[in-house]
């Protein structure tokens, strides 16, 4: 990982921010929104954002490079399926962070997913998520677009989830009944039933679609509302492509298209609130640099983070590129992560919630060594 | 302690139906749960699950092969695309037997009398997760559940581990059918043609991490890779299993099990296997198909496997706050019996009977218990002539059994991650999950429940707080829903 000291020395001048402090530790009253898209299974960052300027890419990978990536700068290209995201890059509404990871090298999905959500260094060591803790400090509500409430958002003062039921001949339960059920419960179940009772997050009546694209639209719409949630969490599963991952076309590229359309739907549904929004992806790890025996890639380390939203002022590809020669790889097989992804999370919290970087790393991540890369991402 | 027999039957099973015979001697019943065969009597008293709806792995793969042959034929025909899709869909629906498998899981949970074994079946099915797919894996998942896991619940863990690891469904789910030894004949031949070939470590990694020793064992990336080398050569795509078997047989790549019924049990392709010795966690394994059994035996008998699985069993039956002492009783039994599952399961029963810890039930466990304890006819008992299909609502078919499991987020045929469903309470607590439980409870009420909310509360010794809430329900339906959605029913 790049050290805090080193990174500060190459950081651009601090962005001038104005506004009125509302809490002791916030610096301006922005009504920012954060949307996290969890890419479950481990996205292949080298297929999504190929470092086409690094000759070793083609030496290490024969098949798994798209034949026609769009060029972003001399080093990086982007898979052609990111059509909307590429437009956002052009209009200074998106940034990319490459060769990055949460501080986890174990290559287990389940430990890695836990760490990407908890933000701690040890798997299964806490019951709250980094986003939930940040929401708690900033007194912000949010919503998960899934049947369950993911760890990422737990710890928030108020969070809810949305996932429309599809059980024929049933309707939303009545408040009086829910309140009686609530009387029999304590703790977390009681709190969840209470939310159900209050319908605090405007429960929809008829909407049935619950694919990522429909959920993205729903998220954008509800976050646009006055007093709507300011945080949303979405999951796109099935990135665990050990075989036949695809290059120009194939399963991973199909997922890129889906992710790209999720970005588009969020922007479209958020309308004017897009200006106050930052969307970021997370994934538990990247994949091996070389393809395995079955035209797929196995569990690796460094990957890529995609960010979009009106809170970005100037697009950039942020990377401290470690190189792809075999000697430069982590354990001679994986892309090294030279940026701690918690730096990216911290920057997003700073941008959307107005918390100070030092406060975020100390209170949310409990690690004072996390570098500030805010200006690199947001311009 | 579980003095109330009805609560005890929920702690380790799915509860007693109103028409079940309540055992006089609960200890004898406990032992019987593991040792005896229990016919599936149920409402219509039709006896055992009809033999014609039991399908062997060979039958399943043959049905799939027939479907694919038909599909290829239809797709080559010069007809309208919609008509093609219609025919292919109908052929797949006819060929696939997962509807029977799902129905059997429901039927057994709701009507069978070996309720502890049924709960163990759900536990082990989750431990050895094989995610479903819209493709072809769903043809074989039911075989893993009903024919492999259920039939080995009283055997040794090393047998179960080997049978699951070599099951065509597991090999397909974790990509092992694509893993080719780097020095195998197949890899050499592919390289000559300029093609890439090598290992895929997906199954190897999960075999160590999830199925046996867990990361606590601190094995290395080399151990994973060498495990993948032992596994290379095992498995074929489920979709074209039969066709590939015939091809490999023709080219003499299969040694030993040249009959299909033998090969499906040990699907090993010599041509794809990695030659030479392999070292995993300090132990050397020879080349050839026998190495895998030696490897799974070593993993099954590792101390970390005993620790990992004793804890998992305790968490499942006792609750996530199971104490170290409780885990230790199961662990000691595991060690003493060398992973004899009958002994281990009996120890689990013993610990569960004495515990004060409560478990927040999985959504499906809660649902099956709700149906069973209330005596509802949510699903018809299977008739000897079939009668499968949708779940009945006042005599009309309404729900797909698999669809309902999807709605509550707990479907063993769904596409999901290999770590299976969580045992943590908080992972099942959300407004949407609770909304689903209330909706399901309201459907169960309509499905001919014979016990009222008050009767359930008395039967199960609910707290005064819950009884008071039930009494405030405005009608019998509300009272019923409050009883099933109360903390007393959700946690046992």
- CATH-defined architecture of the largest domain in chain A: 3-Layer(aba) Sandwich
Oligomer: heterodimer
Question: Which class of secondary structure composition applies to the elements of chain A?
Answer: alpha/beta
Count of helices of chain B?
A: 25
In round numbers, the mean pLDDT of chain A is: 88
Helix content of chain B: 40-55%
Order of helices and strands of chain A: HEHHEEHEHHEEHHHEHEEEEHHH
Domains of chain A, number: 2
The CATH class of the largest domain in chain A: Alpha Beta
N-to-C SSE string of chain B, H for helix and E for strand:
HHHHHHHHHHHHHHEEHHHHHEEHHHHHH
Helix content of chain A: 25-40%
Identify the biggest protein-protein contact and residues per side: A-B, 59 and 64 residues
| CATH topology term of the largest domain in chain A | Alkaline Phosphatase, subunit A
Radius of gyration of chain A: 20 Å
Beta fraction of the residues of chain A? 5-15%
Please write out the topology.
The complex is a heterodimer of chains A (379) and B (492).
Chain A: H1 4-10, E1 33-39, H2 45-48, H3 56-60, E2 70-71, E3 77-78, H4 83-90, E4 94-101, H5 109-118, H6 130-138, E5 141-144, E6 158-161, H7 175-182, H8 187-198, H9 212-224, E7 231-236, H10 251-270, E8 277-283, E9 303-308, E10 317-318, E11 339-340, H11 341-353, H12 357-364, H13 374-378
Parallel strand pairs in A: 1-7, 1-8, 4-10, 4-11, 5-6, 5-7
Antiparallel strand pairs in A: 2-3, 4-9, 8-9
Helix pairs in contact in A: 7-8, 9-10
Chain B: H1 5-12, H2 26-35, H3 57-76, H4 81-95, H5 98-111, H6 115-127, H7 138-149, H8 157-165, H9 168-173, H10 185-192, H11 202-211, H12 221-231, H13 241-250, H14 260-263, E1 278-280, E2 283-285, H15 290-300, H16 303-317, H17 324-337, H18 341-354, H19 363-374, E3 391-393, E4 396-399, H20 401-407, H21 431-446, H22 453-459, H23 464-471, H24 476-484, H25 487-490
Antiparallel strand pairs in B: 1-2, 3-4
Helix pairs in contact in B: 3-4, 5-7, 5-19, 6-7, 8-15, 11-12, 16-17, 16-18, 17-18, 19-21, 21-24, 22-23, 22-24, 23-24
